[in-house]
Amino acid sequence: MNLEKYLNLLDSELDSALATHDGLTEFYGMMQYHMGWLDQNLNPVPAARGKRLRPVLCLLSCEAVGGQVEQALPAATAIELVHNFSLIHDDIEDNSATRRHRATVWKLWGANHGINSGDAMLAIAFFEQSQSIKHNVSPLRTTIAQGIFAQTVLRLAEGQYLDMSFEDRMDVTIEQYLDMIRNKTAALIKCATHLGALVGGAEPETMQHYALLGENLGLAFQVIDDILGIWGDQAQTGKSTATDILTRKKTLPILYALQDKELQKLYAQETPDVAQVLEILKRNKAREFADQMARDYSEKAMQHLEAVKNDTPAYLSIRELALSLLKRTF
Ligand code: GRG
């Protein structure tokens, strides 16, 4: 699968969306730094970009329903900008010093500049999204897309609220956790495939399959991330092994095993003993539970993809991309 064409289109659109305005070199520089284009002295560096999973899915979904890739470029760019805005803010809220193996924006320029540059990126995202109309997308579809996009950003904020509110609770249910990741992670991936199909001219039933493909892919993606956060190796995750345990994150395997009184006791401590936590997870078959859940969501995603089967190269690339994401574990 060669995604170069899509990545190049996205790079050039993101580049113009975040272009420096006169007299504001440092302000736009912070955003460009976060995107991986500049170093901390604001000198150009070989791009250290993210995976671009969401915008690539958006472009491919548009083409797979018979649209032109350019029609989805504003939506795809807007989605990647929202994703990056949320990472800038998330790093502040989580007090994280590194992202994509580099210092975070707030760590270099302080939280106030981090908040402000994140906010600017969000505003630019909304502007970008409104530009669909210039790319041969009808006013009706552009307006519907705008509504879906705004609702998605709201879902993200809700998911982040839920995630943070879980930190001080020991009684979070699996259902509440799934609602949280549906908002925090799956909503934006759902938005990507949904908007791609919408601006590409899909009929409602097809569009719904694309939306649900993205949502289930997003749910599987987050559950797999939770598994890797405990059992993944450093080379694969970029985080040191068992970080999620040391920081007492309430991820799916942990929540599942928190019915065990011993784990509750360990998680009441500032820094739980990793070996003991791993032993309790093993005893409760927490890995098997999370693996099964990831498998269930993956299967659902693939069923929705199967329902809109066609022989376009874009469709086949979505299939390949989805499978490669889901293969990160089991
Ligand atoms: C929306 C108003 C408003 C506030 C923001 C901060 C926040 C609320 C939400 C944070 C949401 C968040 C950080 C979700 C995690 C999503 C996730 C799985 C990120 C990692 O995605 P990758 O692996 O990242 O695609 P790359 O680095 O490849 O781009």
Explained architecture:
The structure is a single chain. The protein has 330 residues and is an all-alpha fold. The chain is built from 16 helices and 2 strands. It has helices at residues 4-17, 25-34, 53-64, 73-94, 105-109, 111-130, 139-166, 174-199, 204-231, 234-237, 243-246, 252-257, 261-267, 274-283, 286-307, 313-326, and strands spanning 98-99, 102-103. The protein has a two-stranded antiparallel ribbon with strand order 1-2. A hairpin with a 2-residue loop joins strand 1 and strand 2 (102-103). Helix 4 packs antiparallel against helix 6 (111-130). The structure holds geranylgeranyl diphosphate. Geranylgeranyl diphosphate (GRG) binds next to helix 4, helix 7, helix 8 and helix 9.
Q: What's the story with the biggest beta sheet?
A: 2 strands, antiparallel
Low-confidence stretches: none
Strand order of the largest sheet: 1-2
Shape: globular
| Order of helix and strand elements from N to C terminus | HHHHEEHHHHHHHHHHHH
Mean pLDDT across all amino acids? 94
Rounded Rg: 20 Å
Report the strand count. Answer: 2
The portion of residues forming beta strands comes to: under 5%
Distance separating the two termini: 22 Å
Number of H/I helices: 16
The helix fraction, in percent, is over 70%
Ordered list of secondary-structure elements with their pairings:
Layout: H1 4-17, H2 25-34, H3 53-64, H4 73-94, E1 98-99, E2 102-103, H5 105-109, H6 111-130, H7 139-166, H8 174-199, H9 204-231, H10 234-237, H11 243-246, H12 252-257, H13 261-267, H14 274-283, H15 286-307, H16 313-326
Helix pairs in contact: 1-4, 2-6, 3-4, 3-8, 3-16, 4-6, 4-7, 4-8, 7-8, 8-9, 9-15
The protein binds geranylgeranyl diphosphate.
